[in-house]
Design a protein that fits this description.
Blueprint: H1 8-31, H2 40-51, H3 63-72, H4 78-100, H5 104-112, H6 114-121, H7 126-144, H8 150-165, H9 172-184, H10 191-216, H11 220-224, H12 232-246, H13 261-282, H14 287-305, H15 317-339, H16 344-360, H17 365-378, E1 386-389, H18 398-405, E2 411-414, E3 425-426, H19 428-432
Parallel strand pairs: 1-2, 1-3
Helix pairs in contact: 1-4, 1-5, 1-6, 1-16, 2-3, 2-18, 3-4, 4-5, 4-7, 5-15, 5-16, 7-8, 7-14, 7-15, 8-10, 9-10, 9-14, 12-13, 12-15, 14-15
């Protein structure tokens, strides 16, 4: 077995280089994308921020949109504010890990993985959850090592879980995971800290639903809870694909057209998962490492089963990012113990393959943004409420709407064909007959 321990000076140089390259890739990831790394949910987030205090979206908590709103007061628009939040989240992770000497090297490699770089560049709330998840793990370790009292531990974990719930409802899975770990450790001095904080987190969500969600959307449950949305074989297939791409350290997106390349993409992900299982079994896990794994696995399992009753996107690297962070941290800690600073090479290799992928599928967001801005100005729509027609949620025409939302986020999607007869309703054809937008299905 080869293990390399670099001189501290050279180690710091490599770490600094990895950080610089990660920042560069985060920025390149959205600038070299034709629509700036946004999706249909991004439209809702930016619109929610734009029109606040009007509430038109209860499918997402207010935390992320309000942070976007906050930074718009400093001269940024909603799009650039969302990108600043992603970069700020990455920076916060680095600073906290370095100052607390908590999984710093492991975090450097994890956050340099192409999937996590893509998260930080995305206009989505997952990036904002990652620092809170990391701090949750830090506090949890302090509790397990008896460096924090039980009452303080309950308070801090509850605050962190509530903060996560105000960014993503799926933080409920962390609450359940905390309860499960606590119940597994009954008799230990720390079990109540995890069990009680998890219960309090779920209790907060119940109050939040009654006072916020039900107030603004009394049909929320009827609209989003539906039994039998997908069959078990379909869900299991999506689970396999989602896990295989999430745990691929280099490429986290399969070819949507299928083909032999997907065997390689899924294969690397499966081999990585097998390597993780082997390492976790063969090496001794500390109590805090067991906590990371238990909470992560519970959250992944619940992410799968919730699909039977709740309409969500298929499991992928984005949805799983907060849940797999702990698994990656423990895995890289074991690799550093086994291979030393050679482990840093995984981060560099992931950034290299990520840059190659991004370059080969590159677009030009700034040019597309300029074209859309000119179009909206010419149509006197730059600061007006917009409506855009799509056939359905899977319609690729939505990519045009997503690009428009980065300039004017006050846009609503219509699925009514009769709306196309109205001149004020935008369609892909009406927009692209006047401007040319490059599309790419890989990003």
């Amino acid at each position: 077995m080869i293990s390399i321990k670099l001189n501290s000076r050279y180690e710091k140089i490599l770490q600094t280089l990895l950080i610089i390259l990660s920042y560069m890739m985060i920025i390149a990831r959205f600038l070299l994308n034709e629509k700036g790394r946004v999706n249909p949910d991004s439209i809702r987030y930016m619109r929610q921020s734009k029109i606040f205090p009007i509430i038109d979206n209860t499918t997402a908590p207010l935390g992320y949109p309000l942070f976007i709103k906050f930074f718009t007061y400093f001269g940024l628009d909603e799009f650039w504010s969302s990108k600043f939040i992603g970069i700020l989240a990455y920076t916060a992770l680095l600073i906290f890990a370095y100052r607390k000497r908590f999984y710093f090297k492991e975090l450097l490699v994890t956050s340099a993985l192409f999937s996590f770089v893509s998260i930080f560049s995305f206009t989505m709330s997952e990036a904002m959850t990652l620092p809170l998840v990391f701090i949750f793990f830090y506090v949890a370790q302090q509790i397990i090592e008896n460096k924090i009292s039980q009452s303080k531990g309950i308070f801090l974990l509850t605050i962190l879980l509530i903060s996560l719930l105000n960014i993503r409802y799926s933080a409920l899975f962390f609450c359940v995971g905390s309860i499960v770990f606590g119940m597994m450790k009954i008799g230990k001095h720390y079990w109540k800290s995890f069990a009680i904080s998890g219960v309090l987190g779920i209790g907060f969500y119940g109050i939040y639903k009654l006072l916020f969600i039900d107030y603004f959307n009394e049909n929320y449950v009827d609209s989003f809870l539906e039994i039998g949305l997908k069959s078990t074989p379909e869900l299991l297939t999506e689970l396999f694909q989602g896990l295989a791409t999430t745990f691929n350290p280099f490429i986290h997106i399969a070819d949507p057209n299928g083909g032999a390349i997907n065997y390689g993409i899924y294969g690397i992900g499966v081999l990585t998962m097998l390597a993780m299982v082997f390492v976790f079994i063969k090496t001794q896990l500390s109590e805090s490492e067991k906590l990371f794994l238990v909470i992560s696995l519970v959250a992944i399992v619940l992410s799968y089963f919730v699909q039977y009753v709740y309409s969500v996107n298929a499991i992928d690297y984005r949805l799983l990012a907060p849940f797999v962070l702990g698994i990656w941290l423990v895995f890289f800690k074991k690799l550093f113990n086994l291979f030393g600073d050679l482990t840093l090479g995984i981060g560099f290799l992931s950034l290299l393959t990520g840059f190659a992928f991004t370059w080969l599928s590159r677009g030009d967001y700034l040019q597309n943004r300029k074209s859309v801005t000119q179009f909206l100005k010419s149509e006197n729509m730059l600061n007006k409420q917009l409506k855009f027609y799509m056939k359905d949620e899977m319609d690729n025409d939505g990519q045009t709407a997503e690009l428009i939302s980065t300039v004017n986020p006050h846009i609503y999607i219509s699925f009514k064909a009769q709306d196309t007869l109205r001149k004020e309703v935008l369609t892909r054809y009406r927009v692209e007959k006047k401007i040319n937008i490059k599309k790419n299905n890989y990003q």
